[in-house]
């Protein structure tokens, strides 16, 4: 690495050149091979409460060199903070950017490479916004981006590792993409499939064969935000949404943005990013060299067969229903139904090593208690599976064990609740930037009512607090019964709906605390860790299956589930292989649940069933046929399974 200083500061690394020009004091130029990079805004905005953070002044940079790296630091004053230090750490191959704010406040929109300039000289050309309308509130308002200072892209496309049903991976530099934990079934066809995905974007050229990373690095317990967003337009920036749930007292250091060349292999780029997180102690490196052999066995999950016999797809194709109220899939999760399904498989010479009992083996009002009408002898059923050398996993939705859902027995005081007096969004009315309007530079509060919950949208008023000691004890005791030999003796859990976490600004503990202890990604990690630790205490080789594809969750799972395959593609192999490659990089050595629901056709099922052993545990969801098309299995299909499963087992 070489550094030269004068009217320009130039840092030349192995793969990049970073340039600061005193004549352009708000930006640095950063270019990698092929010219990919950006003209990066130095002063990132960090909004506090309802204050819009605006740059007041910024100093000339201070350069601190050592034998292997250099630090370039800019000190500034902003309207929200007493002092801010923006730092570029440069070594031979990468640039790492972050900033430190000094003062007190609460974090809202935390931006990178984008912000506002106080007394922006561009506004001297503007008068009062005399746009047509019956009142100013109804007239046209310019978008927020028009008043910001942002970064200039030297790339044409952005690659995202966010997993969604549409399999959308690449967007134009002018678009937006959010990798988040508060997901739903609508964003790109549904992004709840991975909650959350890895916090990594790539900047790329128009040929899409060279890339540069924009990787987010966060220290443990610092993931108190909902998502990592690429904000495009004519210019671009990045943003984290903290939603006022993180207080700053005296000083706060932002997460870091790691920028390095990624060449053409996107999975190698992801691996390098994860390795960096491990080096920086942002995530844990788990040794999985000696995992139990049974974790790798073929899986039978009963959900697809349940759906085949239900009214779900008849309802879907009829177009008569706007909700899930008439769906009866859960009624086929019975002991008798599963015994019949397994008997059919055994008669065909198929012996799954792992059985997943899906939704629902539990009481409608209590997620962790058995529904004895549906499963009159679950303990005996599990014992008989064990006698056949088969392990039994219980489906679970951890957040659902609360008063608003399937936890009616959980006492009120063990919950968090949504206080509608504080249920609002903070928005910027861009009139504040017009001097003629004479408005305070603050955001406005847009209050709203708690939305109506649905089967797939958990807009709950009461959500269990996974840090409340009595709630923790209740969950631990119930898990001990479900998994220990003196209880049911089940063998682990498969998690679903992990995106049902608390998500509203007005969320507060019912106890006396003003603010939740964990928020965003941290709240989900805390909940899953509660189940993971409790399961391991009850049974040391318990298997925990999750769909949290972010390396921060590497320490609370044993198997990553590739998740549902809602798609409009004739073949699902490419998109499922993509998910598997991500899984292998973010949680090295973990077992992989390859899923199989829903399949678009019997032909697609046959292709994927043969491919599954190449990417993880082969997994079967059907006994009779394909739920969507009603095509029934033929003898050749069972022969395909016998052959592929046999070859897979022989290679274990």
Describe the structure using short key phrases.
10 helices, 2 domains, 28% strand, 652 residues, globular, TIM Barrel, alpha+beta, 19% helix
Describe the protein's architecture and organization.
The chain is an alpha+beta fold and 652 residues long. 19% of the residues lie in helices and 28% in strands. The protein contains 10 helices and 37 strands. The strands form 6 sheets. It has a 16-stranded mixed beta sheet that branches. Strand 8 and strand 9 form a beta hairpin. The longest helix has 18 residues. It is globular.
CATH architecture of the largest domain: Alpha-Beta Barrel
Biggest sheet architecture: 16 strands, mixed
For the termini, the CA-CA separation is 47 Å
In terms of quaternary structure, the protein is: single chain
Topology diagram in text:
Blueprint: E1 2-5, E2 8-12, E3 16-21, E4 27-32, E5 37-41, E6 46-48, E7 54-58, E8 62-65, E9 70-78, E10 83-90, E11 94-112, E12 116-117, E13 152-154, E14 157-160, E15 170-172, E16 176-180, E17 200-204, E18 211-217, E19 227-231, E20 237-241, E21 247-253, E22 256-263, H1 266-279, E23 299-301, H2 303-309, H3 312-318, H4 335-347, E24 354-357, E25 362-363, E26 366-370, H5 378-387, E27 391-396, E28 415-418, E29 424-427, E30 444-447, E31 462-464, H6 469-483, E32 492-495, E33 507-509, H7 521-538, E34 543-546, E35 559-561, H8 573-586, E36 591-593, H9 602-611, E37 619-620, H10 635-651
Parallel strand pairs: 7-12, 23-24, 23-37, 24-27, 27-32, 32-34, 34-35, 35-36
Antiparallel strand pairs: 1-2, 2-3, 3-4, 4-5, 5-13, 6-11, 7-9, 8-9, 9-10, 10-11, 11-20, 11-21, 11-22, 14-15, 14-17, 16-19, 17-18, 18-22, 19-20, 25-26, 28-31, 28-33, 29-30
């Amino acid at each position: 690495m070489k550094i030269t200083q004068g009217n320009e500061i130039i840092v030349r690394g192995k793969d990049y050149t970073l340039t600061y020009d005193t004549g352009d004091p708000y930006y640095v130029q950063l270019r990698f091979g092929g010219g990919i990079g950006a003209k990066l805004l130095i002063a990132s905005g960090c909004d506090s409460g309802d204050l819009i953070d605006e740059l007041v002044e910024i100093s000339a940079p201070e350069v601190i060199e050592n034998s292997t790296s250099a630090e370039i630091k800019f000190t500034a004053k902003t309207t929200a903070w007493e002092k801010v230090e923006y730092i570029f750490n440069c070594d031979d191959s990468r640039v790492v950017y972050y900033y430190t704010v000094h003062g007190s406040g609460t974090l809202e929109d935390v931006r990178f490479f984008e912000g506002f300039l106080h007394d922006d000289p561009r506004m001297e050309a503007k008068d009062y916004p005399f746009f047509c309308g019956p009142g100013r509130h109804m007239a046209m308002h310019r978008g927020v981006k028009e008043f910001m200072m942002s970064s200039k892209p030297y790339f044409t496309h952005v690659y995202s590792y966010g997993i969604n049903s549409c399999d959308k991976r690449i967007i134009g530099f002018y678009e937006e993409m959010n990798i988040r934990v508060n997901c739903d079934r609508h964003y790109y066809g549904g992004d709840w499939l991975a909650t959350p995905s890895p916090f990594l974007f790539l900047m790329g050229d128009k040929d899409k064969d060279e890339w540069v990373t924009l990787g987010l690095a966060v220290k443990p317990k610092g993931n108190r935000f909902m998502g990592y967003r690429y904000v495009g337009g004519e210019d671009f920036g990045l943003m984290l949404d903290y939603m006022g749930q993180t207080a700053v007292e005296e000083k706060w250091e932002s997460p870091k943005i790691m920028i390095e060349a990624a060449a053409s292999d996107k999975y190698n780029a992801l691996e390098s990013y994860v390795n960096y997180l491990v080096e920086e102690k942002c995530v844990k490196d788990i040794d999985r060299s000696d995992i139990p052999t049974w974790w790798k066995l073929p899986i039978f999950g009963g959900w697809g067969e349940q759906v085949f016999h239900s009214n779900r797809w008849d309802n879907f194709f009829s177009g008569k229903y706007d909700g899930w109220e008439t769906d009866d899939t859960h009624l086929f999760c019975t002991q008798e139904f599963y015994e019949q399904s397994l008997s059919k498989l055994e008669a065909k010479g198929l012996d799954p090593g792992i059985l997943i009992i899906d939704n629902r083996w539990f009481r409608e009002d209590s997620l962790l208690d058995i529904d004895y009408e549906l499963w009159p002898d679950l303990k005996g059923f599990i014992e008989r599976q064990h006698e056949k050398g088969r392990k039994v996993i219980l489906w679970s939705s951890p957040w659902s064990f609360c008063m608003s859902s399937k936890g009616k027995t959980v006492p009120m005081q063990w919950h968090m609740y949504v206080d509608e007096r504080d249920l609002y969004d903070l928005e910027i009315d861009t009139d504040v930037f017009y001097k003629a309007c004479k408005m305070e530079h603050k955001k406005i509060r847009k209050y709203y009512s708690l939305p109506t919950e649905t089967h797939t949208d958990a807009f709950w008023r009461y959500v269990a607090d996974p840090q409340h000691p009595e709630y923790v004890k209740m969950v631990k005791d119930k898990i001990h019964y479900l998994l220990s030999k003196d209880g049911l003796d089940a063998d682990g859990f498969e998690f679903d709906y992990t995106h049902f976490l608390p998500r509203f600004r007005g969320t507060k503990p019912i106890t006396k605390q003003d603010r939740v202890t964990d928020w965003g990604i941290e709240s989900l990690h805390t909940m899953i860790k509660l189940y993971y630790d409790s399961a391991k205490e009850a049974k040391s080789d318990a298997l925990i299956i999750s769909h949290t594809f972010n390396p921060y969750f590497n320490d609370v799972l044993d198997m990553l589930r590739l998740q549902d395959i809602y798609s409009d593609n004739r073949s699902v192999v490419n998109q499922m292989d993509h998910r598997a490659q991500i899984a292998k990089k973010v949680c090295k050595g973990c077992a992989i649940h390859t899923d199989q629901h829903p399949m678009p056709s019997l032909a697609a099922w046959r292709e994927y069933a043969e491919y599954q052993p190449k990417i993880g545990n082969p997994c079967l969801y059907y006994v009779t046929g394909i739920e969507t098309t009603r095509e029934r299995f033929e003898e050749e299909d069972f022969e395909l399974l016998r052959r592929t499963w046999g070859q897979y087992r022989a290679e274990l």
